[in-house]
Amino acid sequence: MRRSAGIEDLSGLVRDVMGSGCRVIAVDRLPGGSKKGVYRVRVDGTPMASVIVYSWGEEENFWSDRNGTDAGDPFAPASGLAPFLAAQRSLDSLGIRTPGVYLADDSRDRYPAAVVEDISAGTLEALFESDPARATTALSDLAAMTDVMHRHLAPSYGQVDLLEQGSTASGVSCEQVVLDRALHDLEEASGRDRRIAAAAGQLREHLHTLAAVLTPRAAFGLIHGELGPDHVLVDADGHPVLIDIEGLMHFDIEWEHVFLRLRFGKHYPALSRPGLDPQRLDLYTLAMHLSLVAGPLRLLDGDFPDRAFMHEIAEHNLKEALAILARQTGPSLPPGKGL
After folding, report:
1. pLDDT tens readout for residues 73-123
2. DSSP letter string, 4-69
3. Residue of 238, 271, 267 lying closest to 119 (CA atoms)
4. Do 173 and 286 belong to one domain?
5. Based on the domain organization, do 112 and 139 belong to the same domain?
6. Residue 52's domain is classified under what CATH number?
7. What is the pTM of this model?
8. Which of 138, 215, 217, 315 has the fewest CB atoms within 10 Å distance of its CB?
9. Which one has a higher pLDDT value, 326 or 64?
């Protein structure tokens, strides 16, 4: 059984930041997080009431396939202190707000961890419900932030920590990387759900058709990769703060916009921009849905605790992928039963 970090585990780390007079009085593991643990640590004896600790210990990673992955794959699992710090440096250089880093520790006597600023005012997702006017202002600021990121071009695609080291990402183009990943996700999902299996041939053919019309690019914007309203905090002054930044990479910005459209829903028009390639959007939309079927189902092979939520994500995206195919081929897909 997995064990969350407690007061004894985190006290020394927090005292390194806040001084020996600091006393940890409570540790709460925040919900979500499948690759790292996120803990709010409450203290006394210091002007700050709390900090956040990110922990990349083995016990915090719920994914079962983290060994043997290609480090050059732009979609390789992005987890760990090094990718976090590389992403934080990159965003900071552009003036993009992330929680301030008080301490980063990858020493042998502790699991890799970072102590960061506690932005406790809540997420943009929650603000849409509790304070729509304040959320609208924060969303406008977020749109300006994504504009800065998407216009920050690089001649190569890949995760920022890889590019920072002077390495090259695998694959020959963004669209080929997406196609290869989508085909793998399709195969994996087909082994777990009979509805996807029944439509696998048609989905495979449609993916190839969508990819065939695309040509490679020579410059790539900076994207978060999983920029949903739950990954945007809003600080006390109403400004957006990006979190879960480890997957930051240079890539086709259409990939980001597909995710933004999916996660922001009716709020997406504030983030939408002209000039996006509609053919890339078509391929990337189907690929995204397949990824959000295969990934959650894979996660459910393990002991991830919020199982109903992951099943809901997989089910929604499975239906969306089949709906795309139905619009192309007519309503002849087998209804079947899932899983």
Report:
1. 999 877 789 999 999 999 999 999 999 999 998 874 556 899 999 998 789
2. ---HHHHHHHHHHHH-TT-EEEEEEEPS--SSSEEEEEEEESSS-SEEEEEE--GGG---S--SS-
3. 238
4. yes
5. no
6. 3.30.200.20
7. 0.90
8. 215
9. 326
